[in-house]
């Protein structure tokens, strides 16, 4: 069959030829096609039933392999709408923010900042519970800080996700690290979620308070002074970062690296810290430097935003995996959940 172009709900696809080993499962023949769509830009493998004649093929996507950095999720693929609908859908994505679970220094009530401390058992459980709450929400990319407590939280949360993709930390710190961590199977790649670690998402650097007990510091310097160091917008703790300084790197990173991914239709989870997330939420919710003072984030509680038409719509925290209201937030989330249900039952 010569190369030809079909119009499908997913966009225009170009037939490239039969798969090198055409299979037949229950009367379904497989062949490879190249997706030609500015919206998707993906190499795709499609299934077709029966004979194909150009223009009348009924195609069902079974999986897709992105030709760029990420992987499109087949359960997100819209199945029965026209291409303008599918473009609208691409413009609506989920953004999940999670503060890490309790760390060993949270437990001891010590200022932690950029000290790299792991989770407690309770923190591990909080991360698992957070994962249950977001287990039906699509995740295409994960961003974490460079600190182990945020990375543990992201990984533990993903053990609960119903889609069962494998989160894989990207090692782009050197050409060799990048080359040595390549994946050579398209099938394996499409069952993976890239995890990007970035120091810019680290907790604020707490300066000379790092390692000090919070209660003892309040007793020594006064409750008001310590509250000012911990919650004011522009007053830094001794030799540390103010929230404003933390925002300069965390919000800049969000705008430069994460927001473009949301714009290209990726659903994103960020696992980070009390203050790096407070600064990002200040940006998302357009809080003033006065309003951010009273913003407190608990450990291990995921927060969901919908990014639509350039705006961030705060949807709160999914209460439980069975919380029906969460999936009624948008038609796209409801469809995603329905497709997971179909796939897993
Ligand atoms: O770095 C820390 O000590 C905490 O994780 C955040 O502390 P805070 O609530 O004092 O800002």
Describe this structure in words.
The protein is α/β, with parallel strands linked by helices. The protein folds into 2 domains: about 5-70, no CATH class; about 90-345, Rossmann fold. The protein has helices at about 85-90, 105, 120-135, 150-160, 175-180, 185-190, 215-220, 225-230, 245-265, 275-285, 325, 330-345; strands spanning about 5-10, 10-15, 25, 30-35, 40-50, 60-65, 90-100, 140-145, 165-170, 190-195, 270, 300-310, 310-315. The strands form 2 sheets. Strands 9-10-8-11-7-12-13 form a 7-stranded mixed sheet, sandwiched between helices. Strand 1 and strand 2 (about 10-15) form a beta hairpin. The structure holds 3-phosphoglyceric acid. 3-phosphoglyceric acid binds near residues 106 and 230. 3-phosphoglyceric acid (3PG) binds next to helix 10. It comes from Dioscorea alata. This is 2,3-bisphosphoglycerate-dependent phosphoglycerate mutase protein. Keywords: Isomerase.
> Could you list the spans in which at least 5 consecutive residues all have pLDDT below 50?
1-72, 76-89
Helix fraction, binned, reads 25-40%
Work out the helix count: 12
Q: So what's the overall shape?
A: globular
CATH architectural name of the largest domain: 3-Layer(aba) Sandwich
Organism: Dioscorea alata
Keywords: Isomerase
EC number: 5.4.2.11
Protein name: 2,3-bisphosphoglycerate-dependent phosphoglycerate mutase protein
């Amino acid at each position: 069959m010569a190369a030809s172009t079909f119009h499908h709900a997913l966009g225009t696809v170009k037939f490239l030829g039969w798969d090198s080993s055409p299979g037949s499962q229950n009367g379904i023949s497989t062949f490879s096609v190249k997706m030609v769509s500015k919206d998707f830009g993906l190499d795709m493998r499609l299934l077709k039933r029966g004979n194909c004649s150009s223009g009348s093929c009924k195609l069902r996507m079974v999986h897709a392999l992105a030709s760029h950095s990420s992987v499109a999720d087949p359960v997100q693929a819209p199945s029965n709408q026209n291409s303008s609908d599918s473009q609208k859908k691409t413009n609506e994505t989920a953004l999940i923010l999670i503060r890490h679970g309790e760390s060993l220094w949270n437990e001891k009530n010590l200022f932690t900042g950029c000290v790299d401390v792991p989770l407690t058992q309770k923190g591990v459980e909080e991360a698992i519970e957070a994962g249950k709450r977001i287990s039906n929400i699509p995740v295409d990319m994960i961003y974490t800080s460079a600190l182990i407590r945020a990375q543990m939280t992201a990984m533990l949360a993903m053990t609960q996700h119903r889609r069962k993709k494998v989160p894989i930390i990207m090692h782009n710190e050197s050409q060799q690290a990048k080359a040595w961590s390549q994946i050579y199977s398209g099938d394996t790649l499409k069952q993976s979620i890239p995890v990007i670690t970035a120091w810019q998402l680290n907790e604020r650097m707490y300066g000379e308070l790092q390692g000090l007990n919070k209660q003892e510091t309040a007793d020594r310097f006064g409750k008001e002074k310590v509250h000012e160091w911990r919650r004011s917008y522009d007053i830094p703790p001794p030799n540390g970062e103010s929230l404003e300084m933390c925002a300069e790197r965390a919000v800049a990173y969000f705008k430069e690296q994460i927001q473009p991914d949301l714009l290209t239709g990726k659903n994103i989870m960020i696992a980070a810290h009390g203050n790096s997330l407070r600064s990002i939420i200040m940006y998302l919710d357009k809080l003033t430097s006065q309003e951010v003072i009273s913003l407190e984030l608990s450990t291990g509680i995921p927060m969901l935003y919908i990014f639509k038409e350039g705006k961030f719509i705060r949807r709160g925290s999914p209460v439980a995996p069975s919380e029906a209201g969460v999936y009624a937030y948008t038609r796209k989330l409801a469809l995603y959940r329905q497709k997971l249900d179909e796939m897993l039952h």
